[in-house]
Amino acid sequence: MVEWAEFQNRKKLLGNYIKEQGIDVFFVFNPYNLFYLTRFFHVSTERPLVYAMTADGKAHILSPALEEGEARKLPVVDSVKGYFEFPGTGDILGDFFASLARDGNIKARADSLSLGRYQDLQKRFQDVGLSDAVEKMRLIKSPYEIGLLKKAAVYANFIVTEGFKIAKPGMTEMELLSIIEQKTISKMVQELDEIIYVPGGPAGGLVPSGDRTALPHALPSARIINQGENMILSCGANVEGYRIECERTFFLGQPSARHREAFLLMAQAQKMAVSLMKPGAGCRDIDNTVLDFIRDKGYSDALKHRVGHGKGLEEHEAPWIESGDPTALAPGMVVSAEPGLYIDGFAGFRHSDTVLITETGNELLSSVTRELEELIY
């Protein structure tokens, strides 16, 4: 059941922010931010769909006709202005902006702006700029959000453990992914009241095998899985828009000495990352500590990415566990811990866990084994 009080509270918080900042109209173009404020997800296309909050705390949506009916059902939206198609014969966005710029409104802020939209707003407001207010609201997950993430974790854990059972030499990567996706989605349909489709679907991921594991984002292929090589199940699940990831490197048959060495270093670095994720810890400090540990072991050339990133409505969102992000972790933040090693032409090694920062430390939301001897099939 939808807890609309949660969305009413978000609306109130944004209204308080724009009042404190003296903002006349706050525009939301990012579909994830719009979902966060309204529980309305749409696939962003060339047709503008815009959320705007005015200084009186009222929420307004501009919507194409094909989305308008759903938008009008939202209890946290006060008015919906529909239009038939884009680009249309008039100035769809300009007219919507003008309708909100009346009565002396001069200060507008937006969560994101293209050059064209910025220029359109400048024609109607004296003071136009960007604001990350909604993104900052999203940083700390509420009990409601944490509950959804924990539900998603059940299915992220399930899809990975099913992958261990089903992967066999002679299968293709695409065959494996198709089977575990369908098993997981069937389980979700049976057990959940509702599944909201968002890009990426309710459950799925990447399943590279052999030397393709050295490509961190290797898309599923028709490559045949072979005995004696490793795979990475880079999977996740999504419940009511909230995403969890669980990734494990495992082996079909006994790993070679070279496989073992790289795997054990990756696993040690990943456990180190998790142990450092606690209130007050700096994102940049975690990244530097873990990646320097790997470099000191002689694997600098095997590093291709940061230690982690935030999780929530988006697959990747703030905060960033990376040397350029000074953010200090705080209770309620949810992040991934996933340092990886990638040896070109040989293999890649990565575990990822989704980590909830708590008042006293952290809690792993993903819970599949990380131990080498338990990951040999």
Strand content: 15-25%
Helix content: 25-40%
Number of H/I helices: 10
Q: Which shape, going by the Cα principal axes? A: elongated
Structural class: alpha+beta
* CATH arch. level architecture of the largest domain: Alpha-Beta Complex
- Which CATH top level class of the largest domain fits? Alpha Beta
Order of helices and strands: HEHEEHEHEHEHHHEEEHHEEEEEEE
CATH topology of the largest domain: Creatine Amidinohydrolase
Give the N-to-C terminal Cα separation.
Answer: 40 Å
Strand order in the sheet with the most strands: 4-3-2-1-5-6
Taken together, the total number of domains comes to 2
Largest sheet: 6 strands, mixed
- Kindly provide the radius of gyration, computed on alpha-carbon positions and rounded to a whole number of angstroms: 23 Å
What is the number of E strands? 16
Residue-averaged pLDDT: 96
Unreliable segments of 5+ consecutive residues: none
Domain Peptidase M24: 149-359
InterPro entries: Creatin/AminoP/Spt16_N, Creatinase/aminopeptidase-like, Creatinase_N, Pept_M24, Peptidase_M24B
Domain Creatinase N-terminal: 12-140
Pfam families: Creatinase_N, Peptidase_M24
